[in-house]
Amino acid sequence: MRTFIEGMPKAELHVHLEGTLEPEHIFALAQRNGIELEYKTPQDVIDAYDFHDLPSFLTIYYAAMGVLREEQDFYELAYRYFEKVAVENVLYVELFFDPQAHTSRGVGFATIIGGIHRAQSAAETNLGVKSNLIMCFLRDLSAESAMAHLEMALPYLDRIIGVGLDSDEKDNPPLKFAEVFKRAREHGLKLTMHCDVNQKDIGAHLWECLNDIQVDRIDHGVNALEDEAMCDEIAKRGLGLTVCPVSNRFVVQSLTATEIRAMLQKGMKATINSDDPAYFRAYMNENFIALQEEGDFSRDEIVQLSRNAFEVAWIDDAQKQIFLRALDDYVIDAA
Ligand code: ADE
Ligand code: ZN
Predict the structure, then answer these.
(1) 123 part of a folded domain
(2) Which residues of the chain are under the pLDDT cut of 50?
(3) C-beta of 276 in contact with ligand 1 (< 6 A)
(4) Is ligand 1 within 6 A of the CB of residue 219?
(5) Is the pTM of this model over 0.90?
(6) Could you list the residue range(s) of the whole structural domain that residue 241 is in?
(7) CB of 166 sitting under 6 A from ligand 1
Protein backbone atom coordinates (compact mmCIF):
# COMPACT_ATOMS: atom_id res chain seq x y z
CA MET A 1 0.00 0.00 0.00
CA ARG A 2 2.84 2.39 0.81
CA THR A 3 4.32 2.07 -2.69
CA PHE A 4 0.87 2.32 -4.24
CA ILE A 5 0.13 5.55 -2.32
CA GLU A 6 3.51 7.09 -3.15
CA GLY A 7 3.00 6.60 -6.89
CA MET A 8 -0.70 7.53 -6.96
CA PRO A 9 -1.61 10.79 -8.77
CA LYS A 10 -2.91 13.23 -6.16
CA ALA A 11 -4.29 16.75 -5.72
CA GLU A 12 -3.75 18.85 -2.61
CA LEU A 13 -6.53 21.35 -1.83
CA HIS A 14 -5.69 22.46 1.71
CA VAL A 15 -2.13 23.63 2.27
CA HIS A 16 -1.07 27.00 3.72
CA LEU A 17 1.97 28.36 1.89
CA GLU A 18 3.28 29.78 5.17
CA GLY A 19 2.79 26.34 6.73
CA THR A 20 5.36 24.91 4.32
CA LEU A 21 8.20 27.00 5.81
CA GLU A 22 10.82 24.44 6.88
CA PRO A 23 13.11 25.15 9.87
CA GLU A 24 16.28 25.17 7.71
CA HIS A 25 14.65 27.74 5.44
CA ILE A 26 13.66 29.90 8.46
CA PHE A 27 17.36 30.06 9.33
CA ALA A 28 18.53 30.77 5.79
CA LEU A 29 16.00 33.59 5.35
CA ALA A 30 16.73 35.06 8.79
CA GLN A 31 20.40 35.26 7.88
CA ARG A 32 19.78 36.75 4.44
CA ASN A 33 17.33 39.34 5.81
CA GLY A 34 19.38 40.19 8.91
CA ILE A 35 16.79 38.91 11.39
CA GLU A 36 17.76 37.57 14.79
CA LEU A 37 16.04 34.32 15.81
CA GLU A 38 15.42 33.16 19.36
CA TYR A 39 16.53 29.63 18.35
CA LYS A 40 20.10 28.44 17.77
CA THR A 41 19.49 25.57 15.32
CA PRO A 42 16.73 24.21 13.07
CA GLN A 43 16.37 21.31 15.52
CA ASP A 44 15.66 23.81 18.33
CA VAL A 45 12.81 25.13 16.19
CA ILE A 46 11.36 21.64 15.71
CA ASP A 47 11.70 20.98 19.45
CA ALA A 48 9.52 24.03 20.08
CA TYR A 49 6.66 22.52 18.01
CA ASP A 50 4.56 21.50 20.99
CA PHE A 51 1.09 22.01 19.54
CA HIS A 52 -2.02 20.86 21.39
CA ASP A 53 -4.65 23.17 19.92
CA LEU A 54 -5.11 25.78 17.22
CA PRO A 55 -3.88 28.85 19.20
CA SER A 56 -0.67 27.10 20.35
CA PHE A 57 0.12 26.32 16.72
CA LEU A 58 -0.78 29.77 15.39
CA THR A 59 1.54 31.58 17.82
CA ILE A 60 4.62 29.80 16.45
CA TYR A 61 3.35 29.89 12.86
CA TYR A 62 2.94 33.70 12.79
CA ALA A 63 6.26 34.33 14.57
CA ALA A 64 8.25 32.19 12.12
CA MET A 65 6.84 33.79 8.97
CA GLY A 66 8.41 37.10 10.03
CA VAL A 67 11.52 36.01 8.08
CA LEU A 68 9.58 36.38 4.78
CA ARG A 69 10.32 39.86 3.45
CA GLU A 70 11.25 39.94 -0.24
CA GLU A 71 9.65 38.70 -3.45
CA GLN A 72 12.43 36.13 -3.73
CA ASP A 73 11.58 34.77 -0.25
CA PHE A 74 8.00 34.04 -1.31
CA TYR A 75 9.23 32.57 -4.59
CA GLU A 76 11.62 30.21 -2.82
CA LEU A 77 9.06 29.17 -0.24
CA ALA A 78 6.47 28.25 -2.83
CA TYR A 79 8.95 26.64 -5.24
CA ARG A 80 10.43 24.43 -2.51
CA TYR A 81 6.94 23.23 -1.61
CA PHE A 82 6.23 22.42 -5.28
CA GLU A 83 9.53 20.52 -5.52
CA LYS A 84 8.58 18.42 -2.50
CA VAL A 85 5.13 17.49 -3.74
CA ALA A 86 6.25 16.90 -7.35
CA VAL A 87 8.27 13.96 -6.03
CA GLU A 88 5.13 12.74 -4.23
CA ASN A 89 3.17 12.64 -7.52
CA VAL A 90 0.94 15.58 -6.61
CA LEU A 91 -0.29 16.84 -10.01
CA TYR A 92 -2.38 19.75 -8.83
CA VAL A 93 -2.43 22.12 -5.83
CA GLU A 94 -4.78 24.80 -4.53
CA LEU A 95 -2.50 26.86 -2.32
CA PHE A 96 -3.67 29.14 0.53
CA PHE A 97 -1.79 32.28 1.45
CA ASP A 98 -2.36 34.78 4.30
CA PRO A 99 -1.61 38.29 2.93
CA GLN A 100 -2.63 40.07 6.16
CA ALA A 101 0.13 38.26 8.05
CA HIS A 102 2.64 39.99 5.73
CA THR A 103 1.12 43.38 4.92
CA SER A 104 0.85 43.92 8.71
CA ARG A 105 4.69 43.72 8.76
CA GLY A 106 5.10 46.18 5.90
CA VAL A 107 5.45 43.65 3.07
CA GLY A 108 3.59 44.80 -0.06
CA PHE A 109 0.78 42.79 -1.62
CA ALA A 110 2.57 42.85 -5.01
CA THR A 111 5.73 41.43 -3.39
CA ILE A 112 3.82 38.50 -1.92
CA ILE A 113 1.73 37.60 -4.94
CA GLY A 114 4.57 38.31 -7.38
CA GLY A 115 6.87 35.76 -5.72
CA ILE A 116 4.18 33.12 -5.40
CA HIS A 117 3.00 33.55 -8.98
CA ARG A 118 6.54 33.26 -10.34
CA ALA A 119 6.96 30.00 -8.42
CA GLN A 120 3.63 28.68 -9.75
CA SER A 121 4.71 29.33 -13.34
CA ALA A 122 8.14 27.77 -12.79
CA ALA A 123 6.60 24.73 -11.06
CA GLU A 124 4.23 24.13 -13.94
CA THR A 125 7.03 24.43 -16.53
CA ASN A 126 9.83 22.64 -14.70
CA LEU A 127 8.04 20.19 -12.43
CA GLY A 128 4.70 19.59 -14.17
CA VAL A 129 2.75 20.66 -11.05
CA LYS A 130 -0.27 22.85 -11.84
CA SER A 131 -1.74 25.12 -9.17
CA ASN A 132 -4.22 27.82 -8.27
CA LEU A 133 -4.08 30.34 -5.45
CA ILE A 134 -6.63 30.91 -2.65
CA MET A 135 -6.36 34.11 -0.65
CA CYS A 136 -7.27 33.59 3.01
CA PHE A 137 -8.54 36.20 5.44
CA LEU A 138 -7.47 36.01 9.07
CA ARG A 139 -10.74 35.63 10.98
CA ASP A 140 -9.33 37.03 14.24
CA LEU A 141 -8.81 40.37 12.42
CA SER A 142 -11.69 42.67 11.45
CA ALA A 143 -14.05 42.32 8.51
CA GLU A 144 -12.83 45.80 7.43
CA SER A 145 -9.26 44.52 7.15
CA ALA A 146 -10.49 41.54 5.12
CA MET A 147 -12.43 43.85 2.80
CA ALA A 148 -9.39 46.10 2.36
CA HIS A 149 -7.33 43.06 1.33
CA LEU A 150 -10.01 41.91 -1.10
CA GLU A 151 -9.74 45.35 -2.70
CA MET A 152 -5.93 45.06 -2.81
CA ALA A 153 -6.35 41.77 -4.66
CA LEU A 154 -8.63 43.17 -7.39
CA PRO A 155 -5.78 43.99 -9.83
CA TYR A 156 -4.61 40.36 -9.48
CA LEU A 157 -7.91 38.53 -9.87
CA ASP A 158 -6.55 36.52 -12.80
CA ARG A 159 -4.06 34.97 -10.34
CA ILE A 160 -6.55 34.08 -7.58
CA ILE A 161 -9.17 31.34 -7.88
CA GLY A 162 -10.93 31.83 -4.55
CA VAL A 163 -10.97 33.15 -1.01
CA GLY A 164 -10.80 31.29 2.31
CA LEU A 165 -11.04 32.01 6.03
CA ASP A 166 -8.45 30.77 8.51
CA SER A 167 -6.68 31.55 11.82
CA ASP A 168 -8.35 31.48 15.26
CA GLU A 169 -11.95 30.33 14.91
CA LYS A 170 -13.08 30.92 18.51
CA ASP A 171 -15.75 33.68 18.53
CA ASN A 172 -14.97 34.49 14.87
CA PRO A 173 -17.94 32.96 13.02
CA PRO A 174 -18.42 32.86 9.24
CA LEU A 175 -21.18 35.49 9.45
CA LYS A 176 -18.63 38.09 10.61
CA PHE A 177 -17.33 37.99 7.00
CA ALA A 178 -20.64 37.64 5.14
CA GLU A 179 -20.26 40.97 3.31
CA VAL A 180 -16.63 40.26 2.29
CA PHE A 181 -17.48 36.83 0.91
CA LYS A 182 -20.53 38.21 -0.91
CA ARG A 183 -18.29 40.77 -2.60
CA ALA A 184 -15.70 38.07 -3.43
CA ARG A 185 -18.43 35.98 -5.05
CA GLU A 186 -19.52 39.00 -7.14
CA HIS A 187 -15.95 39.16 -8.46
CA GLY A 188 -16.20 35.55 -9.59
CA LEU A 189 -14.12 34.05 -6.80
CA LYS A 190 -14.83 30.62 -5.29
CA LEU A 191 -15.53 30.49 -1.55
CA THR A 192 -14.23 28.21 1.17
CA MET A 193 -13.85 28.53 4.95
CA HIS A 194 -12.13 26.63 7.73
CA CYS A 195 -14.45 24.77 10.11
CA ASP A 196 -11.64 23.40 12.24
CA VAL A 197 -12.00 20.27 14.34
CA ASN A 198 -13.80 20.58 17.71
CA GLN A 199 -13.96 24.37 17.75
CA LYS A 200 -16.42 26.25 19.95
CA ASP A 201 -19.80 26.67 18.16
CA ILE A 202 -18.60 24.45 15.33
CA GLY A 203 -22.11 23.20 14.46
CA ALA A 204 -23.35 26.79 14.05
CA HIS A 205 -20.26 27.72 12.01
CA LEU A 206 -20.86 24.82 9.63
CA TRP A 207 -24.52 25.77 9.10
CA GLU A 208 -23.53 29.41 8.48
CA CYS A 209 -21.07 28.23 5.83
CA LEU A 210 -23.78 26.16 4.15
CA ASN A 211 -26.81 28.44 4.45
CA ASP A 212 -25.52 32.01 4.76
CA ILE A 213 -22.17 32.10 2.98
CA GLN A 214 -23.06 29.26 0.57
CA VAL A 215 -19.49 28.05 0.36
CA ASP A 216 -18.15 26.00 -2.54
CA ARG A 217 -16.09 23.85 -0.17
CA ILE A 218 -15.42 23.35 3.57
CA ASP A 219 -11.92 23.10 5.04
CA HIS A 220 -11.75 20.33 7.68
CA GLY A 221 -15.49 19.98 8.49
CA VAL A 222 -15.09 16.70 10.42
CA ASN A 223 -17.72 17.77 13.00
CA ALA A 224 -20.41 17.73 10.30
CA LEU A 225 -20.71 14.03 11.14
CA GLU A 226 -22.49 14.98 14.37
CA ASP A 227 -25.52 16.16 12.39
CA GLU A 228 -27.24 13.75 10.03
CA ALA A 229 -29.16 16.51 8.20
CA MET A 230 -25.89 18.40 7.63
CA CYS A 231 -24.22 15.28 6.19
CA ASP A 232 -27.15 14.78 3.83
CA GLU A 233 -26.95 18.41 2.69
CA ILE A 234 -23.17 18.25 2.09
CA ALA A 235 -23.54 14.99 0.15
CA LYS A 236 -26.49 16.35 -1.87
CA ARG A 237 -24.54 19.47 -2.88
CA GLY A 238 -21.42 17.42 -3.69
CA LEU A 239 -19.36 19.76 -1.48
CA GLY A 240 -15.73 18.85 -0.93
CA LEU A 241 -14.32 18.55 2.60
CA THR A 242 -10.57 19.09 2.87
CA VAL A 243 -9.63 16.86 5.81
CA CYS A 244 -6.08 16.98 7.21
CA PRO A 245 -5.36 13.77 9.14
CA VAL A 246 -1.96 14.53 10.70
CA SER A 247 -3.04 18.09 11.54
CA ASN A 248 -6.12 16.64 13.27
CA ARG A 249 -3.92 14.43 15.41
CA PHE A 250 -2.57 17.49 17.23
CA VAL A 251 -6.12 18.36 18.33
CA VAL A 252 -7.95 15.04 18.73
CA GLN A 253 -5.08 12.52 19.11
CA SER A 254 -6.37 10.59 16.10
CA LEU A 255 -5.99 10.77 12.34
CA THR A 256 -9.83 10.74 12.18
CA ALA A 257 -9.76 7.58 10.07
CA THR A 258 -13.13 6.47 11.46
CA GLU A 259 -14.66 9.81 10.56
CA ILE A 260 -13.11 9.89 7.07
CA ARG A 261 -14.44 6.39 6.34
CA ALA A 262 -17.88 7.47 7.59
CA MET A 263 -17.80 10.42 5.18
CA LEU A 264 -17.01 8.11 2.26
CA GLN A 265 -19.82 5.77 3.25
CA LYS A 266 -22.28 8.69 3.34
CA GLY A 267 -21.21 9.86 -0.13
CA MET A 268 -19.49 13.01 1.21
CA LYS A 269 -16.50 14.10 -0.88
CA ALA A 270 -13.71 13.89 1.70
CA THR A 271 -10.19 14.65 0.50
CA ILE A 272 -6.77 14.20 2.17
CA ASN A 273 -4.43 17.18 2.70
CA SER A 274 -1.40 18.28 4.69
CA ASP A 275 -2.53 21.73 6.05
CA ASP A 276 0.86 22.95 7.42
CA PRO A 277 3.29 20.20 6.42
CA ALA A 278 6.51 21.81 7.70
CA TYR A 279 4.99 22.18 11.17
CA PHE A 280 3.10 18.90 11.38
CA ARG A 281 6.10 17.13 9.77
CA ALA A 282 4.00 15.37 7.14
CA TYR A 283 3.41 16.14 3.46
CA MET A 284 0.78 14.43 1.28
CA ASN A 285 2.21 10.92 1.15
CA GLU A 286 2.86 10.81 4.89
CA ASN A 287 -0.75 11.87 5.49
CA PHE A 288 -2.14 9.20 3.18
CA ILE A 289 0.16 6.47 4.50
CA ALA A 290 -0.49 7.22 8.19
CA LEU A 291 -4.24 7.37 7.54
CA GLN A 292 -4.22 4.09 5.62
CA GLU A 293 -2.37 2.39 8.46
CA GLU A 294 -4.59 3.78 11.23
CA GLY A 295 -7.85 2.93 9.47
CA ASP A 296 -6.65 -0.13 7.52
CA PHE A 297 -8.09 1.57 4.43
CA SER A 298 -8.54 -0.53 1.30
CA ARG A 299 -7.00 0.41 -2.02
CA ASP A 300 -10.47 1.37 -3.28
CA GLU A 301 -10.96 3.77 -0.36
CA ILE A 302 -7.57 5.40 -0.91
CA VAL A 303 -8.28 5.84 -4.62
CA GLN A 304 -11.72 7.29 -3.84
CA LEU A 305 -10.10 9.92 -1.59
CA SER A 306 -7.75 10.93 -4.40
CA ARG A 307 -10.56 10.88 -6.97
CA ASN A 308 -12.66 13.16 -4.74
CA ALA A 309 -9.88 15.79 -4.71
CA PHE A 310 -9.74 15.97 -8.52
CA GLU A 311 -13.55 16.00 -8.71
CA VAL A 312 -14.02 18.92 -6.31
CA ALA A 313 -10.96 20.89 -7.52
CA TRP A 314 -11.65 24.35 -8.96
CA ILE A 315 -10.56 23.51 -12.50
CA ASP A 316 -12.43 23.13 -15.77
CA ASP A 317 -13.98 19.83 -16.81
CA ALA A 318 -11.42 19.10 -19.53
CA GLN A 319 -8.52 19.40 -17.04
CA LYS A 320 -10.46 17.36 -14.50
CA GLN A 321 -10.89 14.53 -17.01
CA ILE A 322 -7.14 14.55 -17.78
CA PHE A 323 -6.29 14.20 -14.08
CA LEU A 324 -8.95 11.56 -13.46
CA ARG A 325 -7.73 9.55 -16.45
CA ALA A 326 -4.18 9.65 -15.05
CA LEU A 327 -5.55 8.26 -11.78
CA ASP A 328 -7.60 5.56 -13.54
CA ASP A 329 -4.61 4.52 -15.68
CA TYR A 330 -2.43 4.29 -12.58
CA VAL A 331 -4.95 2.06 -10.82
CA ILE A 332 -5.25 -0.22 -13.88
CA ASP A 333 -1.46 -0.49 -14.27
CA ALA A 334 -1.01 -1.24 -10.57
CA ALA A 335 -3.61 -4.06 -10.58
N1 ADE B 1 -3.63 28.78 9.46
C2 ADE B 1 -2.71 27.89 9.11
N3 ADE B 1 -3.11 26.66 9.40
C4 ADE B 1 -4.34 26.76 9.96
C5 ADE B 1 -5.30 25.86 10.46
N6 ADE B 1 -5.08 24.54 10.46
N7 ADE B 1 -6.45 26.34 10.96
C8 ADE B 1 -6.67 27.66 10.96
N9 ADE B 1 -5.82 28.54 10.49
C10 ADE B 1 -4.67 28.11 9.99
ZN1 ZN C 1 -5.79 24.92 7.36
Answers:
(1) no
(2) none
(3) yes
(4) no
(5) yes
(6) 2-14+88-110+129-334
(7) yes
